[in-house]
Amino acid sequence: MSLTRFTPQAALLMAAVLLAGCSGPQRVPPIEVWPDMDRQEKFKAQSGTSLFADGRSNRPPVAGTVAVGHLKEDAIFSTGLENGQYTGKNPVEVTPELLKQGQRRFNTYCAPCHDRTGQGGGIVPKKAAGWIPTNLMDPRILGSNDGELYNVISHGRRSMPGYRFQIVERDRWAIVAYVRALQRSTLGTVEDVPTELRSELR
Ligand code: HEC
After folding, report:
1. Digit-coded pLDDT (tens) for 94-132
2. Phi and psi at residue 157, in whole multiples of 5°?
3. Which atom of ligand 1 is nearest to the CA of 175?
4. Does ligand 1 come within 6 angstroms of the Cβ of 92?
5. How do residues 27-62 score in pLDDT, each as one tens digit?
């Protein structure tokens, strides 16, 4: 059809034909010239079947399958343990970005109880009398290994719950680094300031 013969009537007719395909639910299925893959035999999730001996249509993953992002290649990184002992040093390189991330995560996940300075005056203990978060400036925490802090964050300790399901491993190490920075800044003394800058202190 050339453009000159494309009349308004023809346009209306075409629109009517095309729009007819947009009608509501049909009782009689339309004729399928090319069914493509509209209908296939399949199992609905969680449905039963006699096809497999265990009667389940969902198949268990092949033994040894690891979900994407869950490969634990580095035992120290994922457990905080080195030869069965808490590792002494954060396995993640401490950079300003890591500390920033640690600060974000600490303020989200730890501050409600331990408060933003880590001294234990968060909103939760204010409401839950008797539930006392440890002061992270305590000499015992100061002297603990990075791996032990990582372990407390992951699995909790006594009345503190673990946060391994909420906080990914790298972020847990970022929090460890940030707690160390909080300790350094809170417990800093004049000795930490270079001699030539001490005169500028007020
Ligand atoms: C829901 C409140 C709560 C949150 C959130 C919380 N803590 Fe705690 N935390 C506690 C309490 C309570 C204790 C004291 C546990 C006890 O001795 O029974 C504690 C103890 C600790 C200890 C000392 C463990 C020891 O050796 O005795 C560390 C370290 C610690 N928390 C770090 C963290 C860090 C880091 C986070 C953030 C990932 C965090 N906590 C989040 C409540 C909390």
Report:
1. 999 999 999 999 999 999 999 999 999 999 999 998 999
2. -155, 135
3. 35
4. no
5. 787 788 888 888 888 899 889 999 999 999 999 999
Estimate the crossing angle of helix 169-186 against helix 96-109, to 10 degrees.
90
Q: Where are the domains of the chain?
A: 111-189
Best residue for ligand 1 mutational test, from 138, 160, 173 (most atoms within 8 Å of Cβ): 160
Model pTM score: 0.75
Can you name the CATH fold of 111-189?
Cytochrome Bc1 Complex; Chain D, domain 2 (1.10.760)
CB 182 within 8 A of CB 117: yes
Kindly give the residue spans of alpha helices, DSSP state H, lying in 41-168.
75-79, 96-109, 111-114, 123-127, 139-142, 146-155
Task: Name the region of 55 (left: φ>0; alpha: ψ -120 to 50; beta: rest).
Answer: left
Q: Ligand 1 centroid to 87 CA: how many Å? A: 19
**Contact (Cβ atoms closer than 8 angstroms) between residue 154 and residue 172:** yes
Tell me, using a 6 A CB cutoff, whether residue 175 lines ligand 1: yes
Residue with CA at minimum distance from ligand 1 atom 1 = 113
Using the mean position of ligand 1's atoms as its centre, give its distance from the Cα of residue 167 in Å. 14
